[in-house]
Amino acid sequence: MTATRPPHVADQIGATVETSPHAPCVVTDDASLTYRRMWDRAGELAAQLARLGVGNGHKVAILSPNSLDCVVAMVTVARSGAAWLPLNHRDSRTASAEVLHRFGCHALLVAPELAAEVAPLTEAVPSLVVAVELGSHREIVAGPVPAADPEDDGLAAVFATGGTTGLPKGVAFTADRLAAMVRGYGEIIAEPDDVYLAAAPLTHVGGRICLGVLASGGRVAVLPAFEPGAVLAAIERHRVTTTTLTSTMLYRLLDHPDVRIYDTSSLRALAFGAGPTALSRIKQALDVFGPVLESGYGQTEAPMLMARLRPEEFVDATGAPVDDARLAAVGRPTSWCDMLVVDDDGNPLPAGEAGEIVVRGDFTMSGYYRDPELTAARRCGDHWRTGDVGRFDSDGYLTIVGRKTDLIITGGFNVYPAEVESAAMEVPGLAECAAFGIPDAEWGERVVLVAVPLPGATPDVGTIRTHLRERLGGVKTPKLIRIAESLPRNENGKVLKRFVAEQFAENPAA
Predict the structure, then answer these.
(1) Of 126, 120, 108, 113, whose CA–CA distance to 63 is shortest?
(2) pLDDT tens, 93-127?
């Protein structure tokens, strides 16, 4: 008896191709592909990989900036039956080689402008024996491919994410779980006529969203990189309906001098996140773009479907912004998610009490790649521990308090950096900030705040401290406050808080 094939992303996108073969699928400012042409190109490249020996149980990395060919490459990997391993093209060669080596990558699909990276990468990564140039399909390396490890049978993706040891963790998704994520996107977020703007890197959540858009019959408009003017122009030109931005990207859009000149009326959902967002900026965005904002909660281990705060929930019946507590929430759990807030022993907590967020759903990761100890440590019964601390209100809305590992214990009291940062952002003239703890002989840890002013603003440290003391009390008020020109971020827009803390510890008087 033949075993039934588990759900697969390739099947979902293939179904859309059959129903809408001539519909636009992927567009840039100077090129476009229909669903049929995209599917055929991906099929040709998948067949080439198969001839080279790459298929189920192998890992295929994509090294490319955002492009039409990058989207085709993602569908190619799905059609090949191999596992997708995204690479950040802006990472150093050493960092890329570490990811490829750590997860035993076999093949690389590379943009033409990055083809020179292939030779040093194959030298550093013995398992990397195939490399094909996107667009031309030129075989740069075509060595013999070893048989796939049976342990990787059915693996569909490995997403590299930071680890506490400094080495990347591999967040693994089997084919059925990646397909569930795509199916959930179609049911909860997508509409068939969507035009999704891929301005954030396709190596991160934007790439996973693209798969959901294609499976739902929408269109993906691709920008090579985020640039505020280009994003606004693309929204107007392509009549974009949805996009996802980090909070920093949203700020840069709002600060563009022509933001109110471009026609953004096609937007129905401008999703933002990847870090705390100043309430003043949320209200500004509602004023500029209208009631189209959408926030949510997801992480690499459980992408995008955990909780959502929809556009209609940002405003009241008069169209005015709702109260600050609701604006600060990330929404209510989706129908695809079973979510709890628990204490240290895994017991569910009532509304109003903060604890670790745990989640269960078909769309979550299968586990950490070949790391059973870490996988077991993240288990909480049949839920996954997110590592995030949050609380539900009486209406079921979730607010993120902070990361459990970021907890500052000062004088025996618990302080979560996100609470300090949120309060600090109420002070006029601040663009962003980061709170963290540093060792202290008297207090155990001292709370420190590094704040970045808005252009032209000169916030006063004393004013910030007075506001925080009135808002949070003496224990949570930072003992030290510093003004900085900027905060370091990774490509996905998240503040590298550990780097900030290390810099401060090395030079606290700066």
Answers:
(1) 108
(2) 888 999 999 999 999 999 999 999 999 999 999 99
Burial 359-390 (b: 16+ CB within 10 A, else e): bebebbbbbbbbeeeebeebebeebbbbebbb
SS3 call for 237: helix
| pTM, rounded to two decimals | 0.85
Helix orientation angle between 9-19 and 175-188, rounded to the nearest 10 degrees: 50
CA dist 373 and 354 (Å) reads 27
Would you call 263 exposed, middle or buried from its count of C-beta atoms within 10 A (0-12, 13-18, 19+)? exposed
Give the integer Cα–Cα distance in Å for 420 and 423.
5
Calpha distance 385→408 (Å, rounded): 20
47-72 pLDDT, tens digit each: 999 999 999 999 999 999 999 999 99
Alpha helices by DSSP H, listed for 27-114, are 35-51, 68-80, 93-102
Nearest Cα to 111, choosing from 90, 94, 81? 90
